[in-house]
Amino acid sequence: MNRQQGIDLLSDAKGSWDVIVIGGGATGLGAAVDAAARGYRTLLLEQHDFSKGTSSRSTKLVHGGVRYLQQGNISLVLEALRERGLLVQNAPHLVRHQAFIVPNYDWWEGPFYGIGLKLYDMLAGKLGLGPSKWLSTEETLGLLPTIEPEGLRGGIIYYDGQFDDSRLAINLAQTLADVGGVPLNYFQVKQLIKTGDMITGVVVDDLENGHEYQISGRVVINATGVFVDDILQMDEPHFDRIIAPSQGVHLVLDKAFLPGETAIMVPHTDDGRVLFAVPWRDRVVVGTTDTPIQSPSLEPRALPEEVEFILSHAARYLTKDPQPQDVLSVFAGLRPLVRSGEGKNTATLSRDHSIFISKSGLVTITGGKWTTYRKMGQDVIDQAAQVAGLQERPCRTETMRVHGWLKDYHAGDPLHYYGADALGIHRLLRENLKLAEPLHPKLPYIAAEVVWAVREEMARTVEDVLARRTRALLLDARAAIEMGRIVAAIMADEMGKDNLWQREQVQLFTALAREYILVP
């Protein structure tokens, strides 16, 4: 996957594209991969970097949604459980089984949640990841040695999936390129082209060099997450906003707060959400909140009350109460929830996806979640093909392997997240032993990963590498800042950039990363 090659294809393209997808998050990538896999000429345009927004800031779970089961949304749970099972098969290098325990402190919690999780198992059917079961107090403490023991009556263990969200996004962009589509990052759509009353293309700026392109397409799909209203209003300036953005915040703690490989799930918090404490990449991710936000941002910030909410709830269930100075990184993401009346409690809004077709033929998809990205892509391409009058072709993504597919790997290998591409990184190491040098003693990343990110994964900035190609920013923001200078130097050597570019990149990334630190 090479950005310049994509631009060359864009410049040399004869006639119009079949499908133009705006948005390089989970939804847009899912749609573009589906379209290209069907044989439609497909172009994906992302204004920043792939998964820059919501899609790199999730709880890192591929799950059916226990809380949706509580809400009675059986259809969403069924769909999500099926998609969870397909994703385990299609991207085994990134998705793994994760055990969760619901701790019981009241007499009724065991039977109540136990029955619900048995239903969860039943709905998963053959794609289930393992049966739930009741645990004694001793068994619960054995798996969760730092759980609060006072009043503990045991727990229920069940299984869901865990993944690396931005790594999956990058692999989907590569999959798109593999099947003949063109993914481009740092391409911002600034206008919709209309012929008569119908949309026939887009005007975009290459944000790296300022070059403008007018691109024709038979159908344009608006898959921009929390920014779908901006595109809708390009089409119809007085269009009522349909998104009620909700902010979710996560805190990253040292592994000592939750040793072992088992996660904690608290099914009901003070704001009605589920709280997770999940082992991830030798850290613990704790979250999330559900806070209504007035307007979306590419870099949402955690509010003080959200941080306090998570710390206070975590303290109820952990023997060691986490303090602000213990937080290695804090990150926030926005959910693109579809408005429902004037209610202000976004925790009650549906996580189903919705598809809208404007009078101009603009196809908009929003809502949903990472777990169902593939089905969202299938549904929106079914609709878009009809709008464009494209030849009807079946969806191919149910059993299509994601780029990097590798089933048998050594979990102890820090490069296993690359799947089959790890062979390419090892080849770089054989060619240049210096690329094996660690980027920081507190994190598992090496110089070869920076080179690979530039050459093969379309990384353009230090932030791209440290936030999304690797997960350094989320795992330890202070360490990530310390890595900035060496990463900029490696990238500059690969990209032919000068010292001024390096200094600017380090300054930009440092300013960004400081916002991920609670206590300077």
List the helices and strands and how they pair.
Layout: H1 3-12, E1 17-22, H2 26-37, E2 42-46, E3 61-62, H3 66-70, H4 74-90, E4 96-103, H5 109-124, E5 133-135, H6 137-143, E6 155-162, H7 165-178, E7 182-185, E8 187-195, E9 198-206, E10 212-222, H8 228-235, E11 243-254, E12 263-266, E13 275-280, E14 283-287, E15 291-292, H9 304-317, E16 329-338, E17 353-357, E18 363-367, H10 373-388, H11 422-431, H12 447-456, H13 462-469, H14 472-475, H15 477-495, H16 499-514
Parallel strand pairs: 1-2, 1-10, 2-7, 4-12, 10-18
Antiparallel strand pairs: 3-6, 4-6, 5-6, 8-9, 9-10, 11-14, 11-15, 11-16, 12-13, 13-14, 17-18
Helix pairs in contact: 2-7, 2-10, 12-15, 15-16
Describe what this molecule looks like in 3D.
The chain has 520 residues and is of the alpha+beta class. It has 3 domains: 3-54 and 167-228 and 351-388, FAD/NAD(P)-binding domain, CATH 3.50.50; 95-162 and 244-347, D-Amino Acid Oxidase, Chain A, domain 2; 416-514, Orthogonal Bundle (Helicase, Ruva Protein, domain 3). 36% of the residues lie in helices and 22% in strands. It contains 16 helices and 18 strands. The strands form 2 sheets. Strands 3, 4, 5, 6, 11, 12, 13, 14, 15 and 16 form a 10-stranded mixed beta sheet that branches. Strands 1, 2, 7, 8, 9, 10, 17 and 18 form an 8-stranded mixed beta sheet that branches. Strand 1 (17-22), helix 2 and strand 2 (42-46) form a beta-alpha-beta unit. It is globular. The relative contact order is 0.15.
